[in-house]
Amino acid sequence: MAEKEQTLEKLFTQLEDVIREMEQGEVSLEEAFALYHKGVDTLKMCNEKIDKVEKKILVLDNEGETHEFEQ
């Protein structure tokens, strides 16, 4: 069964939880590696979501016309 796509806010919360758990220092080295990989994977998902949003952003210029956001 396909997992429901998570919101950016939910992903940020998960990332904060991983960081908090690692900062407590009460995890084994193996647990720290697992948390690190979970954090990296979560961060990748965040970046993908942000990239998708940036591609959808329209900018209103001085003449009142819209065009796509450019970096």
Automatic annotation (TrEMBL):
Hydrolase among keywords: yes
Keywords, comma-separated and alphabetical: Coiled coil, Cytoplasm, Exonuclease, Hydrolase, Nuclease
GO molecular function: exodeoxyribonuclease VII activity
Keyword Hydrolase annotated: yes
NCBIfam families: xseB
Protein name per Swiss-Prot or TrEMBL: Exodeoxyribonuclease 7 small subunit
Coiled-coil intervals, chain numbering: 1-63
Compartmental location: Cytoplasm
Taxonomy of the source species: Bacteria, Bacillati, Bacillota, Clostridia, Lachnospirales
InterPro entries tied to this protein: Exonuc_VII_S (IPR003761), Exonuc_VII_ssu_sf (IPR037004)
Similarity annotation: Belongs to the XseB family.
Reactions listed under catalytic activity: Exonucleolytic cleavage in either 5'- to 3'- or 3'- to 5'-direction to yield nucleoside 5'-phosphates
Name of one Pfam family that matches: Exonuc_VII_S
Assembly, per entry: Heterooligomer composed of large and small subunits.
Known role: Bidirectionally degrades single-stranded DNA into large acid-insoluble oligonucleotides, which are then degraded further into small acid-soluble oligonucleotides.
Primary site of residence: cytoplasm
EC number assigned by the record: 3.1.11.6
